[in-house]
Amino acid sequence: MKPIRHLNHLIQSFCQLPGRVRWSVGLLMMAAYSWLFYSAFVAPTGFRWRAIYGDPDYPKGYPIHGIDISHHQGPINWHRLRHALVAHDPLRFVFVKATEGDSHLDTRFRENFDNAKEAGFIRGAYHFWSNQSPPRRQAYYFTAMVQLEPGDLPPVLDVE
Q1: Catalytic residue numbers?
Q2: Is the pTM of this model over 0.70?
Q3: Phi, psi (5° rounding) for residue 154?
């Protein structure tokens, strides 16, 4: 009972402080909490996000590089892409966006998928996940729209 009474007294004393002091203490507590949260949860896994912030380094000893494309890139210059280098190594594979949800076919899928093979890339197709439709219907739609051939990469699910 005594610790509760002491805590109650602390709260009452805090409430009697001027508004500016209460705000300052509150902001300091939020800053301390934010720092602790960052230190415990964000900083240990921050290396995963380096690529987003422009880290130009690629892993050493991995000469195989590839990209993903969709209608968002517009028309692709396949000749130029075929001769592009990443860390002094050529691009070897291309994943092409095929479907999204259970009814959307990427407007450039067929064009990009065929051109990737013609340009000499190992190709694959990916499905962009949607929370708006059931998983089974999305899988059925993807398999109905994409006909993989021998030598193509396995399907990939893009969940963002």
Answers
A1: 68, 160
A2: no
A3: -65, 155
